[in-house]
Amino acid sequence: MKPYLAVIMDLFRAALCSRVLWILLLLITCFLLSLLPLTLERVPYQTSDSPTGNALQIRYAGYDFGPPLQVHGRAPERLVSFAVAWFLDYIVDFMVGFFGVFIALVVTSPIIPETYKKGSVELLLSKPVSRPLLFLAKCVGACAFVFLNIVYLFVGLWLIAGLRLGLWDVGILAAIPVFIFYFVIFYCVSALAGLIWRNAIVSLTLALVFWGACIVVAQSKTVMERVFDTEQSAAALERENSIDQPGREFWKSIYRFGVLPLYTVFPKPLELDNTVQYLLNGPQDAGENIPLHRFRSGAVVQNPYSPVVSSAIFVAVVLGIGCLVSYRAEY
Amino acid sequence: MDSAFAIEVDSLGKTYRSTLGRRQHEALRDVSFNVAPGQIFGLLGPNGAGKTTLLKVLLGIIRPSAGRARILGEAIGSSSSRRRVGYLPERLRVPLHHTADSAITFYGRLSGLSGRASRIRRKELLEQVGLSDWERVRVGKLSKGMLQKIGLIAALLHDPQILILDEPTEGLDPVGRKQVRDILLAAREQGKTIFLNSHMLLELELICDQIAILNGGQLRFLGSLDAIRRRSESARLELELQGPETEARAALDMYGEARWAQLGEAHYRVDLTLADQLAVDQCIDGLRAGGISIVGLRHHTTSLEEAFLEIISSEPLDSEEKEEQK
What we know:
The structure holds two protein chains of two kinds.
Chain A: H1 2-18, H2 20-35, E1 38-45, E2 53-60, E3 63-64, E4 69-71, H3 79-108, H4 111-115, H5 121-125, H6 131-165, H7 170-197, H8 200-241, H9 248-265, H10 272-281, H11 306-328
Antiparallel strand pairs in A: 1-2, 2-3, 2-4
Helix pairs in contact in A: 1-6, 2-6, 3-6, 3-7, 6-7, 6-11, 7-8, 7-10, 7-11, 8-9
Chain B: E1 7-17, E2 24-35, E3 40-44, H1 51-59, E4 66-71, E5 74-75, H2 79-83, E6 85-88, H3 100-110, H4 115-128, H5 144-156, E7 162-166, H6 174-189, E8 193-198, H7 201-207, E9 210-215, E10 218-223, H8 225-232, E11 235-242, H9 245-252, E12 259-264, E13 267-274, H10 277-289, E14 293-301, H11 304-312, H12 319-325
Parallel strand pairs in B: 3-8, 3-9, 6-7, 7-8
Antiparallel strand pairs in B: 1-2, 1-4, 4-5, 9-10, 11-13, 11-14, 12-13
Helix pairs in contact in B: 3-4, 3-5, 8-11
């Protein structure tokens, strides 16, 4: 294992020397400091249909941040879980999940292409190291580098949520492995592209395109399933009125032969949140009590483990292809 | 597994194919030779001759399309064979975050050396190449020659039995070249086999025991430098003769085609090529015995470089020649 540990340690050395690690840690610190003025306050909220409701007012440095968030039909004690969900959904999931993964991909995308550049790869491959393990060591190194930053970020978020907002929730810390897994899903694509084309820009672009494709496929599936459900209930009425919808069969074919197979094969990063909630709150709460994706149409999965399993299979397959490519490649 | 040879190459071929297989380039064709242990073996050839391809095949970086090769009796590319080889690539590119010190340690660790072992050996080697004062300097600030020396140290660090060096003196000043030569000669003294790839004939001339010349992916020459020197000793002779033409022609007839020019009555200039000094002596003896006066004699010798150029433009070795030269 000594040579592979040396490869992983070398990545950290490279990060320290190129100041990437320090810049990232500084950015994370700035982000955490920017969250310090954030407060959540319980305020009475009155509407015509709910005269004595409870609401959460988000304040930033004493200023109201939008209208209060009303919690319809919920007991006051559920406000905390609502606040946690809001924090997880907006701060952790959206801001960190989206921008964090993007930055992590940008920072790590040159690792594999740099390793396999002419002049450096020959010397590496002349050493008694296994090519697949060298590739995997580089991937592990990239993930370890991201992990270091993420632990700092999420522990900081957890402390801010607890100290400033009174939301001591383990869900924030549970987001660490989820975030890493989320990153790994796209990084393995970036690593494979970097191995084949040995170009950091191609590697990053393909990872981002794939990320977009995953979102498009998942959203298309959700939308199509909703439309088809509506159609089924309307089918009887259509038959009675003999109304023909010529495009329907076409879209069903697209769903059956395009969207559904892709959805099955692709990882399901958007659904990983639900799995975490299932693990944290039990089956009755998954996708129900905690209003994750309230304002985004994320699909609620029937089987909470299926996104993890299918994503893990995808990662394993892509890394397996990477190992095969690195084994067979000639430099 | 041990073998009588440090490196065995048997009918090795390598064809590069484009992704769709439409275009192909035969970089190596039917290359065979053996390198005895403890030798400094030089691989010579012009740019694009297939030298680096051959080196990469021996290191297992690329796979041969035909034939086979073994290093110390092990299949090329196996982990055990790579453990016994130190390699210096042609265009060494050390990641810029390294200092001289950390780069050597990193490559040492990849070779399976412990931190302590590499520290001891590193110090000794840095001193040997005169880089002790530069160990803490980032590689980006080192000159090309210094970087080349760092690469050489990285190749030597784990005390390999075979050194495969691709243009090791490239970019070095005369002092640096001498230091590298001394290191290689010392390594030979320790019984290491050194496989050198270079296009600098004069550089190889100083240290190599055996030489292979490659051109167009094919072996053009295999043998000692003395054999090339013998070729270079072939002389073009310009003779100015006086005497009966029939006698002179009879004396020179056995030495192949000669160019004759008449300078006056019974006065000629003759150009002919002779294999070596022995042939020159015999030719002159023959002329004198025939009663021919040698009025003038100019001896044009072929330089080592001319011999090399002649070899690379010659036909590839056939199997009989290969056996003979082996």
